[in-house]
Input
Amino acid sequence: MEDEDNQSWIHLAKFLREMVEGDFPMLERYPGLVRYVFIDDAQSGARLASDFKEGGFNPYGNGQTSVSKKQFLASHKVKYDQLGLTAVQRTARWMDYSRSGTAKKKQKKQQQAPREQREASLGPSRSLQSKQIAPRLRTPRVNVPRYHSGMSQCARLYAVAVVNPFSFFDASLAGQNKTIGINATQDKLPCVPNFPSLKAERIAVFIRGTLLSEIGDGNAWLAFTPRRIANDYSGVDDTIDCPLFTNDGTTVFTTFPANLDTGTPTAGAVGYTFNSEFTSTSIAVDTKYRVVGSGLRVRFAGTELNRGGIIHCLEEPNHFSLAAMSPASMSQYDGYFREPVTRDWTSLVYTPVQPIELEMQSEAVSITNDKHSIGMFINAPPGVQSLFEFEAVAMFEINGPTIRNQVYSETDMRGFEMVNNVMRTENQLVLQESGPSGIYKMITDGAAMLSNMLPAAKAVGSLVSMLL
Output
């Protein structure tokens, strides 16, 4: 029984000694256990970890050192004898040495270049590629209700056409891939979304030019009606056929011409036509058209020293003629506003006011019924000729036996209602001062009322972003 106890102590001693060789930290807190460890090797006959040199096979798998414990103690025996160190103290010196060696190895490993850098010339390894890819984070799915305007594509484009028709032609938007222009496909041009759906070709046309104020009193004017689709009207001393008339820069005018829309020649008036593909002859028989959106705008283009004055703007509320109107008489109408002469655009847009204006009409009916009701009268500084730049745009739906590329419009009475509840002649000032966004907000507010009283920003939050 005593022999068995001794044998157990020997095995325990070997186990603890191996832990010492492996730098087991618990023995530092319990140094009393160390006295059981250093049993003479002859008693156990065991091969300890300290017996193995660096690079040799270690059957215990508990670490290797560059110098064994026996070698370390033998090399320091004389010194330690002179100091009178006990076995425990010498072992502590050995453990300090062992720990310092491990720390140096770790430091050396950290200073080495990463494997990925060493193998950079061979291309990134799979492990490197995987480290460069950020982990995918799964975000919790939140059920957020989706709000929309409830407007069809046709109705959204119609809203743009009546609020800001110039956006279809603005070259500054070309880089954003939003310019439509005269070569656009049919699905990119607006239509009137009322009932019934009509088959027609959608086209976009424009007029661009300059005018001068009269040098004596500094006045200039523009009178516009969009319902003139042909490209060959006579514009010489004629004030009925052409969609746009201006002064010639030499004749004195204190009002719009009295003969405007009467067919009687007016000296000093210059007419302009749209750049459409149709002539008055080609659309004379069984061809009808209607205006989808249109507008007129002007801005100062002369020298800064000559800039000044006022621009009087009006879309006649019943679309009657502007003939013989002066700035004073224009100011008596709802929808009139005035702006200082600047290098920014001053704009007027066409808004239908009669049901017939949303119907397809022949050329003859359009010329007879539709007057030059959109106009600007400019009071520039007298004594100098001020240069102005102008632009008139229009989008049409036209059908007839010889018209090609016809597509059906969409019926969207709800979207049609949203737009036409807002676009009225008296809102021209809102459009000028706040820009298209002000009118868009009015449309979205109206749409909110039609969308079960949802907040406007949510009910039609996609409208503004989808319009342009």
In short: Residues 87-111 form the longest helix (25 residues). The chain has two domains: 2-111, 153-410+424-434. The mean pLDDT is 74.
